[in-house]
Specification:
Length: 88
Amino acid sequence: MQIEDIQKFLDNKAVAANDSVQISFRKRATITGIFVRGHRDYTEMKSKNFWRIVPESQFVAWEATGDVQLAKLFLGTEFSRLSMRKSS
């Protein structure tokens, strides 16, 4: 996906700071994660189509600490689809 498409999703879906998103990839399994937008390099990384995402396995630790080291970097061109996580 292109930077504009990802940003439009984040803006239009009104994704709050801790809303989880399902991210489908072209060549790997779908993950659920939280986009990290408050980090100091967000604008720079976004301009290169890199996105910091906290995977579902780290949600509890992320909510407790907010440690950016829990996030992983993903290249936006590898995304095939973004959707809001469905409640279980």
